[in-house]
Amino acid sequence: MVISPFNFPLEIPALQMIGALITGNKVLIKGDSRVTLVMEQFLKMLLFCGAPPLDFDYISTNGSSMEKLIKMVDPRMIQFTGSSKVANHLAILTKGKIKIEDAGFDWKILGPDVSEFEYVAWTCDQDAYAISGQKCSAQSILFIHENWAKKGIIEKLKELAAKRSLKDYTNVPVLSWTNEQIKEHINKILEIPESKILFGGNELKDHKIPKCYGYFEPTAVYVPLKQILNEKYNKLVTTEVFGPFQIVSTYIDCEVENLLTILEKMEHHLSAAVVSNDVIFLDKILGNTVNGTTFAGIRARTTGAPQNHWFFKVFS
């Protein structure tokens, strides 16, 4: 059984389904009901190309109905991609007969050596805000060494974010967070001492996006490193927002140990990036952190996921 998320309506379920089929399994595919048309058309193409129609089943339904089905059929294995909350629930429900890729609060560190400034700035913008941040490997928090800050990386990120638009699809609707939820989270972050909005923080205007979706500017909120380290605020700051939002903090050389403590406190170690060619710095960070995937080097990014996901023009 394959249960796939809305943000990868074709790539994830198609890869997982085909993998199951070629190893001799019959597969039930459950795509997210908001994007069900995508997988439906893919399956129709497979049938047109000669796929045996009894080798797979497809269902479009809500979570509660799917839970009833799982209890009824007791599948041998579920491949699940989605939220941690649902993943934890399914792990208990299936007594562990599940393979999981769940949430990711993904960090990026800009090391002490500054080079390829324009490329690094572009990558930071893409990792955080491509498809409005709706990737489990999106850049959730950016730690900036003082050398990059002095060079003007925050101002450059603000400039790049300001160019994003619904008209050219560099900004898109947010399917799983409403504007009210995004605003509520930002307001809670801003209650942390010394935190502030670096850019963004407002709803998009002049569009036809239904209110059930979010439509928000690319937003960055600064939180001091000492406050992220604080147990009182750590869980709030490291909560994943599946939208165009990231936390930004700065650090100096003597704060690297505090930075490492913060990284290892995070619950979801999916992907990360250490942007540096400094061998000693890379060895320090890579030797003291664990992730599903960590990209390293001056061109490192948090995600290799496809960036160009297009939404219907009627929304713009």
Task: Outline the structure in words.
This protein is α/β, with parallel strands linked by helices and 316 residues long. It folds into two domains: 2-101, Aldehyde Dehydrogenase, Chain A, domain 1, CATH 3.40.605.10; 106-296, Aldehyde Dehydrogenase, Chain A, domain 2. The protein has twelve helices and twelve strands. It has helices at residues 11-22, 36-48, 63-73, 84-93, 117-129, 146-151, 153-162, 179-190, 225-229, 231-237, 256-265, 279-286; strands at 2-3, 27-30, 56-59, 78-81, 98-101, 106-110, 139-145, 196-199, 219-222, 245-251, 271-275, 293-296. The strands form two sheets. The chain has a seven-stranded mixed sheet, sandwiched between helices. It has a five-stranded parallel sheet with strand order 3-2-1-4-5, sandwiched between helices. Strand 11 (271-275), helix 12 (279-286) and strand 12 form a beta-alpha-beta unit. Helix 5 (117-129) crosses helix 7 (153-162). Residues 308-316 have low confidence and may be disordered.
Q: Secondary-structure element sequence?
A: EHEHEHEHEEHEHHHEEHHEHEHE
Percentage of residues in DSSP E strands: 15-25%
What gyration radius follows from the Cα positions, in whole Å? 21 Å
Spatial separation of the terminal alpha carbons: 36 Å
Largest pleated sheet: 7 strands, mixed
> What gross morphology would you assign?
globular
| Total domain units | 2
Task: Please write the CATH class name of the largest domain.
Answer: Alpha Beta
Structural class: alpha/beta
Helix content: 25-40%
Kindly report the name of the CATH homologous superfamily of the largest domain.
Aldehyde Dehydrogenase, Chain A, domain 2
CATH architecture of the largest domain: 3-Layer(aba) Sandwich
Low-confidence stretches: 308-316
pLDDT averaged residue by residue: 91
Number of helices: 12
The largest sheet has its strands arranged as 8-9-10-7-6-11-12
